[in-house]
Amino acid sequence: MKKLKGFTLQELAIVIAILAILLSIAVPNYIAMKKRADVDSIANQFAAMIRELYEKIDSEMEYDTYNSSAGGHMSKYYIRIDNYKIPDPISGERNLKIQLIKFDASASPATETVIKEIVSKTVKLQNASGSSILMDSAGNVATYITFKPDGKILRFTDRVAARNNVEDFSVRNGIEVVPKSGGGYKKTVYLNTVPPGSVEVK
């Protein structure tokens, strides 16, 4: 009977070296692919939420006309963006949270109810070149987005009923979705004012 021969130390070393080379190629490729998939998913979900926001506002004529000096109508619908700014009250963690909310001014105090939510720990948002719709420089507060009757994009921070950093935009603004850990890959969600409520992902 022929005696079976096992691997020699030299052969094992060669096999291990080959596996190490394959892993050094496969692991970075997998990480890069995962980052791209996360960015694509969040960008597409965010764009869909903006479209849904405009459809709700337009169908119910819930455009926001409020300003602190003259009063006006506060919309029922907003997108609230927490870009790793506000710690969770229980865990203390900070995540990306993009929420479609319904505002009830008749409640005492007024309430903001989350209708839909996108959460991520792997991607973040940043303003595209020439855009300033996100207010990350305002401290640990959320950025709110809604629409005015003329199709302009309305942005403010803090809360619906107690607004700061209020600005409206008559030209399109871009928000980039990028990996939190870096990597160069990005998708840009463009909020257009013509036609009102239209969104592109590029």
From TrEMBL:
InterPro entries: N_methyl_site, Pilin-like. The chain crosses the membrane at residues 12-31. This is Prepilin-type N-terminal cleavage/methylation domain-containing protein. It comes from the Bacteria. Keywords: Membrane, Transmembrane, Transmembrane helix. It comes from Caldicellulosiruptor changbaiensis.
